Amino acid sequence: MSVVYLLSLSFSVDYVPHQVEARWQRKAAEYKPPEGNMDGLTSYTRDYPEKKVDPAKSVKRTDTQRVAGKFEGDPTYRDDYRQWDIPARHTYKPDAAWEKPVDPFGGSTTYDSDFQKYKSSPAQPIKPTSQVHASHEPFDDRTGYRDSYIKHPMPARYVKEKEKYSPTKVPFEGSTNYSSDFIPRAGDRARPIKPNATTYASTAPFESSTTHKNDFKEYAVKVPEIKTREGYVAPQGDMDLQTSHKLDYTAKPIEVVAAYKPVQTSRRVEAAFDGSTTYDNDFRQWESARATLPEIRSSYRPPSAPFEGMATYKAHYVKHDAIPVKPIRPDASIHATNAPFDDATNYKREFTPKILQPCPAALLETERASYYFVEQARGHKFYQPAQDAYGSSSGAGEIQVA
């Protein structure tokens, strides 16, 4: 038995290609420059003309005072620190001079000699092929459920009888436990505990006695007695200034230790000491006066005539007629129309409503059922399409059994 599915594509029938026009775009208005020539002069260039000013003179002094004579003599640094003849140190570092090889370079490296390249076949991929394995044998739709399932008759379901409602014949009293147990009693109205708002008035004279006056009374306090200190009395007799240190450690005759350091004879100069230095001779104190600050004089003189009240901006500014800028906002009156609104869309034009078929499982054992039970010779029953028995014309979306 072979099953052939004949399905028609609804996409190719419902969606027909249409010609798409380019989207309309609004063109920007062309720029129109204003008429006339532009005057590049400003009020700043007219009010503040350029003036020639001499450059500021430098305050730094150019004359330097130096000693004309040449220094002749030997300074203390050269006299104290003289150059001595010191033999050169012998180095024990080996001579690491590189010697150029005599043999020519063969072009082979240790990598080429150690790692030899061998020819090997490429590894075969372990990924399975993506080809479809088509089978020419007919499709076997027999399953274990269809071969082994035996449908047995189901007994009728037990339905419990419902008890009929029978209303009581006793009239309804309407009394509850609350109304019978809690009987209202007549009682007095609760009195407020809020104090009276009337002010307290008394005709008795005001008593000036307070708890502070009654509890804290004034008592007589005695002046504390001041104790006089006794005068210092010096001890009688003479003070012994001897200490245990002086008595135990007495002075002993000790000879001076002779030094092992050889006696160093210093070089003595009998000439008189000259206290003058090169700094005192070269840099003498000169009489200098305080430098005067340079005075910057400007050639600008403010006018003596009063201001007429007319600025250069008002006198030189020429008003030109400018073209008003057109708004780029679209006019709302262009799109106004009296034609009826066209609410047709591509979805409404191209969409074709389809009739949805109900699920076959919901129509079982009804007049519109497309499947029914078939009993085999072995006693098994299974669902089989109704068109296999009665036959139906083949069409799109239907199953044809051959």
Outline the structure in words.
The protein is low in regular secondary structure. It is built from twelve helices and four strands. The strands form two sheets. A two-stranded antiparallel sheet has the order 1-4. The protein has a two-stranded antiparallel ribbon with strand order 2-3. A hairpin with a 5-residue loop joins strand 2 and strand 3. The protein is extended. The termini are close together.
Task: Give me the secondary-structure topology.
Layout: E1 3-6, H1 10-14, H2 43-47, H3 76-80, H4 110-114, H5 144-148, H6 177-181, H7 211-215, H8 244-248, H9 278-282, H10 312-316, H11 346-350, E2 371-375, E3 381-385, H12 387-390, E4 398-401
Antiparallel strand pairs: 1-4, 2-3
Instruction: Work out the number of β strands.
Output: 4
Largest sheet: 2 strands, antiparallel
Give the SSE order as H and E letters.
EHHHHHHHHHHHEEHE
Helical content class: 10-25%
Mean pLDDT: 77
Which value, in Å, is the CA radius of gyration?
Answer: 66 Å
**Largest sheet, spatial ordering of strands:** 1-4
Low-confidence stretches: 1-8, 391-402
Q: End-to-end span in angstroms?
A: 6 Å
Please tally the helical runs, counting DSSP H or I stretches of 4 or more residues.
12
Our estimate of the beta-strand percent is: under 5%
Structural class, judged by helices and strands? Answer: little secondary structure
Shape: extended
